[in-house]
Design a protein that fits this description.
With about 290 residues, this protein is α+β, with helices and mostly antiparallel strands. It contains five helices and 13 strands. It folds into two domains: about 190 residues, Trefoil (Acidic Fibroblast Growth Factor, subunit A); about 50 residues, no CATH class. The chain starts with about 35 loop residues before the first helix and ends with a helix. Its main location: nucleus.
Length: about 290
């Protein structure tokens, strides 16, 4: 290795592939000319371990990187496993290459202390943020807005509702309907609080998840939509319903001409199910009279 080469300090996770750097076009309009289907295909080809932005709250799951666009340096939410405390860490300390300017939206974690593991009950809008290092402590907030990360079990104070904002940033609302925020205190230092009433600059965070979990969320949504669609478009089998509720004699349906006319009219008027139920009740009544 030559003396002028700088060794990269970027954090690499197990299974992550090394990617070659490519120069961007100066005009920045190349993506605009690419058809949507082609862009979708490119997104599907992205490495599963790549850090990406979530597009909806249900995509926020698995290893998660949370950082705030503070000035002069953006800061990340870190967990100190020695003290069991949340630490606001300046990301500019993690520049992997000399004189390299990294866009805010392109930031990725450089240390496992910056990674939180998001879990949720299936179908629930709330999430739990557990530290990725140490014994796994949950991020919590009490009624006074004090944020901590020293609890081993999850409860109401460990629940957060992510809110996706129009610009793609995320706000986190706690069980008291207050927002997580970065607040400046005396002396110019920053601290994390959870008692903000409204979403402003201090309450907006960039969130990164791994691409494989985003795709997992998409697959679950497709299955859910397909299932709901099948239930919503299910049709009534008139002959089968008649045979089930009105048949006797080796499964032979016995329906009078008048009944057929009534059922046909009910079908036109959109009340077939009601007519069939009435027919079934009538048959039962006739049998026991």
């Amino acid at each position: 290795m030559s003396s002028g080469q700088v060794r990269s300090m970027k954090l690499k996770f197990k299974g992550e592939k090394t990617k070659k750097r490519r120069k961007r076009e100066e005009d920045g309009d190349e993506d605009a000319a690419v058809p949507k289907r082609t862009r979708q295909r490119k997104e599907d080809d992205v490495d599963p371990e790549t850090w990406v932005l979530p597009e909806n709250p249900m995509e926020i799951r698995g290893p998660t990187f949370i950082y705030h666009p503070s000035d002069p340096s953006p800061i990340s939410l870190n967990f100190n496993s020695t003290t069991n405390r949340v630490v606001l860490h300046a990301l500019d300390k993690d520049k992997s290459e000399v004189n390299e300017e990294v866009r805010l939206i392109d930031r990725t974690p450089a240390d496992v202390a910056q990674v939180w593991v998001v879990t949720r009950v299936a179908g629930s809008p709330t999430i739990n943020l557990r530290s990725g290092t140490g014994e796994g402590k949950f991020l919590s907030c009490d009624a006074h807005g004090i944020v901590s990360a020293d609890r081993d079990a999850r409860g109401p104070q460990e629940e957060w509702t992510p809110v996706v904002l129009p610009d793609g940033m995320i706000a986190f609302m706690n069980i008291y309907e207050k927002y997580l925020s970065v607040d400046e205190v005396a002396g110019g230092s920053l601290q994390l609080r959870g008692d903000s009433e409204n979403v402003g600059f201090g309450e907006r965070f960039w969130v990164k998840i791994q691409n494989k979990y985003k795709k997992e969320a998409h697959e679950e949504e497709k299955k859910k939509s397909l299932k709901e669609g099948m239930v919503g478009t299910s049709r009534i089998d008139e002959a089968g319903t008649n045979r089930l509720h009105q048949a006797w004699g080796a499964g032979r349906s016995v329906v009078s001409s008048q009944d057929k006319r009534e059922l046909k009219q009910a079908k036109k008027e959109g009340r077939l199910q009601e007519a069939l139920l009435d027919r079934r009740a009538k048959l039962k009544s006739d049998r026991f009279c």
